[in-house]
Amino acid sequence: MAPPRSSNDDDEEFEFGDETNASRSSINDNKDVSTSPSEDVSTSPSEDVFSTPPTSQSSSADESVVFSPELLGMYYSRLFPYHFLYSWLAYDPSSLNPGKKGASSSSSRLFAHREFSMTIEPQPGNEVYIRYQSFPSQEELTNAIIKRRPTKIDIGAVFNHPPKDKHAVANLQTVQRELVFDIDLTDYDGVRNCGCEGAKICNKCWKFMGMAVEVMDQGLREDFGFEHVAWFYSGRRGVHCWVCDEQARTLSNEARSAVVSYFEASVSK
Ligand SMILES: [Zn+2]
Q1: Which of 12-21, 49-58, 170-179 has the lowest mean pLDDT?
Q2: Residues 6 or more apart from 220 whose CB is under 8 A from it?
Q3: SS3 of residue 235 by DSSP
Q4: Among 39, 121, 178, 184, which one carries the catalytic annotation?
Q5: 184 is a catalytic site residue
Q6: CA 195 to ligand 1 center in whole angstroms
Q7: pTM (two decimals)
Q8: pLDDT tens for each residue of 152-204
Q9: In 95-117, which positions are buried (b, 16+ CB within 10 angstroms) versus exposed (e)?
Q10: Within 13 Å and on the Cβ side, how many CA atoms surround 55?
Q11: Most CB contacts within 10 A, which of 75, 167, 177, 219?
Q12: Do 65 and 51 form a contact (C-beta atoms < 8 A)?
């Protein structure tokens, strides 16, 4: 009686076959990752360096949230900041300037080679995770998001070819990936004395996130010399840091691990 898992002919569910596999801990093979509301909401399919895989945290905090596909559709058609997303991921600030026409070809290529993944819900309760989506332009990304109305969008790596062509190319490989940190309040359970644990957060323990951001932001800028450090609320119980400098995007896995280790040493007792 379960509805067919997908009627969408471009669903693709594959293991992420790139070299960042080793550091992935929150996304598995994505065979119908039935993302219950308590699942990790990381925007980063390939980096989850600070968190352990979510296991048993409760979703009680969300039970009062009413989800409406109509509101989501309205959000995507009226409010979603497509132009900022494009400008960021094309690394082309000039694209925000309405008078300016035509991004450089390297910017457009960066964007077109970026993997997006979407979690969609073709029927209520039937979540499908679609990988290896890519879009030649902001307009095509916009159209796809409005049409599919994803409940979650993951931003993946930049590949040597557009990921949507993966069947047509022999060697799809990651060429760039922001340096991403995922800091979670559950990492602080040992020192949270406010009574919260797991997915619970309050104004008291949220201060740990503020401290983590200050320490890491300063370390990334002053100790490593990065300039383009973006912080995002994860949507649940932590924050994500995306280091976007070109040098950061092209770091080897070994170098990424080294940066992570540096901060682990700094934050541990
Ligand atoms: Zn608390």
Answers
A1: 12-21
A2: 226, 229, 241, 243
A3: coil
A4: 184
A5: yes
A6: 6
A7: 0.72
A8: 999 999 999 999 999 999 899 999 999 999 999 998 888 899 999 888 899 99
A9: beeeeeeebeeebbebbbbbbbb
A10: 3
A11: 177
A12: no
Q: Which domains, and CATH codes, for the chain?
A: 31-262 (3.90.920.10)
200 alpha carbon – ligand 1 mean position (Å): 7
- Please give the single-letter amino acid code of residue 11: D
Could you read off the pLDDT of 72-121 as tens digits, one per residue?
999 999 999 999 999 999 998 888 887 766 667 888 999 999 999 999 99
115 as an active site residue: the answer is yes
Indicate the Cα dihedral angle 28, 30, 35, 41, nearest 10°.
Answer: 60
Alpha carbon of 211 to ligand 1 centroid (Å)? 14
Residues 218/231, Cβ–Cβ less than 8 Å: no
What does the DSSP 8-state code read for residue 210? H
Residue 233: helix, strand or coil by DSSP? strand
Provide φ and ψ at 120, rounded to 5°.
Answer: -120, 165
Catalytically annotated residue among 18, 40, 48, 115: 115
In this structure, what token pair is assigned to residue 143? 């159209």
CB atoms closer than 10 angstroms to residue 92: 20
Burial 23-42 (b: 16+ CB within 10 A, else e): bbbbbeebeebebeebbbbb
Cβ-in-10-Å burial (0-12, 13-18, 19+) of 203 comes to exposed
> In whole angstroms, what is the distance from residue 125 CA to residue 249 CA?
36
Q: Kindly tell me the number of DSSP H helices and DSSP E strands found in the chain.
A: 7, 7
